[in-house]
TrEMBL record:
Residues holding substrate: 92
Chain's gene name: ackA
Active site residues per record: 149 (proton donor/acceptor)
Localization per record: Cytoplasm
Note accompanying the cofactor annotation: Mg(2+). Can also accept Mn(2+).
Binding residues annotated for ATP, in chain numbering: 14, 209-213, 284-286, 332-336
Site (Transition state stabilizer): 181, 242
Annotated InterPro entries: Ac/propionate_kinase, Aliphatic_acid_kin_short-chain, Aliphatic_acid_kinase_CS, ATPase_NBD
Organism: Peptostreptococcus russellii
Protein name: Acetate kinase
Record has tRNA processing as a keyword: no
Single Gene Ontology MF annotation: magnesium ion binding
Length: 398
């Protein structure tokens, strides 16, 4: 069975076609600037020299998906001879609210429920649904499956997901902690257990998805007990451009002092803060690290603050689970930040963490990077959300 995985953003679309008989990626690509001048598709497949580029106006996601399918079925650069070889489509859906604790076949009822969650993810869910609608038109009769970023975290108990706010705000508007990056946290949890030769149900794992957007999850015997993001992806760690946890009283204070409205302060916290706002340099940690090496005090402070927040969550989750068997690093910074991983694991002997400097000297490869005698195993695992989406799509399509 061949599964097409789609991840639709507001003006972009990532895709992979995966042969689920052997989980081989047959082709993949990225469409950028959908609905904007300069639309471009970059398509690649194993054995194809360079990338196949299509620069043509794409007014909406339907146009973009037509170009994707044309590339996938192209005689020279494609991976199938006919669209009919695509057996199912798996869609990344950002927010499923409380309605979805697992992936679901996209029936009219499910699509309506996703629409109802759009108020909680106004930039993402509508774009995700555009991709669904386009595929329904272009690939009629093909099974469509939604895989939710929030689903993995739906095992959190009420004591974890409830805020200290009037209860009617939860019952009326669904204001609670949901968590994100769930597909990534689920994948690395399963992969970590596999690498350690155990079942997820036998382990207490802390998964650290550290990228421009970042979150940490406490996975207790295969189920999410807690995670750092909340109602939105703003809560939790300091990130590339997001502030993470702050005193909520700062918001009206800034609004009054800077003359900002709600949209203005939302933009400040989501787009102008994080390590970018703290340094004025960049949201890319590589740029921050370069500046820190040159002695830039703001860059040094930002990196120290980032490491401190990650360590704080790891310690909290170890306490919450009454211990931890493994800590996993994944996503862009987690997979490639050799020094960052070392700084986070430093001075964690109390917890039973002992990092092996030689094993840690690696980027983007599955590896146990703790010492052989480390009580808590530390692992580096490149995330693979697309494969996770494809696996769930295969399961439901069958």
């Amino acid at each position: 069975m061949k599964v097409l995985v789609l991840n639709c953003g507001s003006s972009s679309l990532k895709y992979q076609l995966i042969d689920m008989n052997n989980e081989e990626v047959l082709c993949k690509g990225l469409v950028e600037r959908i609905g904007i001048e300069g639309s471009i598709l970059k398509h690649e497949k194993p054995g194809l020299e360079g990338k196949h580029i299509v620069e043509e106006a794409m007014n909406d996601h339907k146009d973009a998906i037509k170009h994707v399918l044309n590339a996938v079925a192209d005689a020279k650069v494609g991976a199938v001879k006919d669209m009919k070889e695509i057996d199912a489509v798996g869609h990344r859906i950002v927010h499923g609210g409380e309605k979805f604790a697992s992936s679901a076949v996209l029936t009219d009822e499910v699509i309506k429920a996703i629409e109802d969650c759009s108020a909680l993810a106004p930039l993402h869910n509508p774009a995700n649904l555009m991709g669904v609608e386009a595929c329904q038109t272009i690939l009629p009769g093909v099974v469509q499956v939604g895989v939710f970023d929030t689903a993995f975290h739906q095992t959190m108990p009420e004591k974890t997901f409830l805020y200290g706010l009037p209860h009617e705000l939860y019952t009326k508007y669904g204001i609670r902690r949901y968590g994100f990056h769930g597909t990534s946290h689920m994948y690395v949890t399963q992969r970590a257990a596999e690498m350690l030769g155990k079942a997820p149900e036998d382990l207490k794992i802390i998964t650290c998805h550290l990228g421009n957007g970042a979150s940490i999850a406490a996975v207790d015997h295969g189920k999410c007990l807690d995670t750092s993001m909340g109602l939105t992806p703003l809560e939790g760690l300091i990130m590339g451009t997001r502030c993470g946890d702050i005193d909520p009283a700062i918001i009206p204070f800034i609004m009054n002092k800077e003359g900002l409205d709600a949209d203005g302060v939302d933009k400040l916290m989501n787009k102008q803060s994080g390590v970018y706002g703290m340094t004025g340099i960049s949201s890319d940690f590589r740029d921050i690290e370069d500046a820190a090496k040159e002695g830039n005090k703001l860059a040094i402070n930002a990196l120290d603050a980032y490491v401190q927040r990650v360590k704080k969550y790891i310690g909290a989750y170890a306490a919450e689970m009454n211990g931890v068997d493994a800590i996993v690093f994944t996503a862009g910074l987690g997979e490639n930040g050799i020094g960052m991983r070392a700084d986070i694991c430093k001075d964690m002997e109390y917890l039973g963490v002992s990092l092996d400097a030689e094993k840690n000297d690696v980027r983007g490869k599955d590896r146990v990077i703790s010492t052989d005698d480390s009580k808590v195993k530390v692992l580096l695992i490149p995330t693979n959300e697309e494969l996770m989406i494809a696996r769930d799509t295969l399961r439901l399509a069958k």
